[in-house]
Design a protein that fits this description.
The protein is mainly α and 284 residues long. It has a single domain, classed as MetI-like fold (Orthogonal Bundle). It is 70% helix and 0% strand. The N terminus is likely disordered.
Amino acid sequence: MTTLSLPSSAPLLRPRNRYVAGLLTWRGVTGLVLVGVVALAGLLAPWLTDADPDAQGAQALAGPSGAHPLGTDDIGRDLLSRILHGILTDLSIILTAVPAGALIGAALALLAATSRAADLVVQRLFDLVLSFPGLILGLAVTAILGPGRWPVVIIIALAEVPYFGRQLRAGVLVQREREYALAARVGGAGRARVLLRHVLPNAVDPLIVQGAVALSVGVFIEGALSFLGLGVRPPQPTLGSLISGSVAYLDTDPLLAAAPLAVTTALVLGFTLLAEALNRGARS
């Protein structure tokens, strides 16, 4: 009697080595450098400056000096210290929100794979979330919960759920028709076992690219909400709130806006380049 061998996975279907190759391109290296430098500056904030980011001083809107390398804001707070601590705040928000959105989206995608009725409900739920632009969704959530760190985390996570969910759902639909999945079903494996042990490990790769995209979108959403006064409550600094507070002084003190704007641009550009590099690597 012939014994049917059931592969637990399909290694040839996993392009993770291609992702690594994508990161070694100029896009990947540039993105890694930009994100790495900005993230390292935020993590080393307590050692790069000893100024309290919330401490007010007598010298408002002072220019760069030895005591304040980037000058001070409108109430005398050290601009460099606030930018560095703002980076740390932004990173803590997006690195909490994006994985949460990915997990919720993945769970809903797996639920959709269990039956047609569940798939229909999940798809309509994704459509409902996507019908609200990120800022409109932010206004709705902050109207209920008020501004603050956790409402921003919830907004970013909700905005990313349908994108992660649709990516994984599409991957599951493709992978469950592959020969290894069919062989597992013929061998008597249940639907849940086939889905979780055989199909899921081979369907998650596109989420790597989506994760890089989501991080850049998360920085944008946080910055937009803080710019509108709906983000993290002051005096805690974020990059968006620093840009917002500098608008009134663009003519007299452009550095007040240019410095946090340059950091935000570097962070968004870095994540975008990483997403492009990973995407090109996966397609090569």
